[in-house]
Amino acid sequence: MNSPSDFSLLSAKEKDALIAQLLARLGALERENATLKAENATLREKLNLPPKTPDNSSTPPAAGHKSNGETTRKPKGKPHAGAHRPLHPHPTQRRDILASHCPHCRAEVSSVAQTPVHSYDRIEIPEIKPDVTRVTLLGGICPCCARPFKAAPPAGLEPGSPFGPNLRAFAIYLRFTQAISFERLSRLFSDLLGLEISEGALVNMLDDSKLAFARAASLIRARLLAGTILQSDETSVRVGKRTWWTWVFHHAEDACFVIHPNRSRAVVEQFLGEHRPDFWVSDRLAAQMNWAKKDHQVCLAHLIRDAQYAIDAGDTAFAPGLRKLLRRACKIGGRRHQLADATLRAYGYKLEAELDVLLRIAPAHGAGSKLQNVIKGCRRHMFVFLANRAIPPTNNGSEQALRPCVIFRKVTNCFRSEWAAHLYADVRSVIETARRKAIGALEAIRLTLNGLSLPTGPALRTSA
After folding, report:
1. 3-class DSSP state for residue 207?
2. Is the CB of residue 147 less than 8 Å from the CB of residue 141?
3. Considering the entire predicted model, what is its pTM?
């Protein structure tokens, strides 16, 4: 707004117009100043909030910062006696050595009856070299019809890829379990086995194994959908230049992984089809809620971390009591196998009553109020595990199943193609299911490549 330098030249009407313009601009500046003050206060409030750490949020442990502590090691609180390596249960060979002379007087003792005095193992790796079978199919001219003939290849030694199932299983194990890149994997085969395998040949091995692992993953999915309980979680993964999501659906002995472009309910719906389990265990992500026919158990470990964050932010009224209550509930869940049904019901009534008391507290801090609203929204899903012993109180099993996927992502930066991502999900399904059946990963891969199903083993008890 341009104002004249000499206001005496303005008429009364012009002065009134100028004053009106100035008042309007002053009002606009006052409103803008009030808005900026409010934004500044909000930002200052955020600056005063505690940082998100693995202890008070869902921040992964790798993203947490470790403080510099003392370098001296503290003595163990409960020292135990030292232990020696046990003898191997199935030694390759045995050598019983007889004493020939007495070490004291040098008398000859080879004819004296002797008993075992000291046994120990000597472990060595044999020379590692590939077992190469050269197959030559002989043929000739038939004397009857004068037409050429050729011998049929023996079973298991048909023409095609020169690499057998054991070598392919070893390559898949190193790639997907130990997160070794194709370049390093090619060099490893050259240095360790004396076998030259190009990166392209390694890719072809993986491509040829897609159908076997897809079949195995479909069987695992079918067993999961035949049950009544499902647990789930997800983490990010890179496919090409885009962020996709690795999902895990599991319970008891079976775990099935899915890599999908998004994180929405469509992933769960596609996995479930028409099936709906009776119970579901997950965190509070909306895409994983409202799928169970009977009830849903939310992860108490997530709520404990949220309570810790509210405490760090300054809430002293609601969050400390809630954290103590949830920790006690998890301890009860960990010893359910020792408790009778009536005892569990009594614990459930007591926890619900104590939670009612906590929810009547009026938090004086915003973080406490926010946490209280969260608890009010999910309280009916907090203690479902007390009525069903097969349901864990936390979703830690899902996070543990996803942990190798996170490590693979950090080490390899994931996948260039979609088919490799889907293959990894199928391989991960087989390996995690084998782990729960107490079967080695390499053995599980070998069985899958040979078209065999994983044998039934003892299921791992879900930890509370």
Report:
1. helix
2. yes
3. 0.80
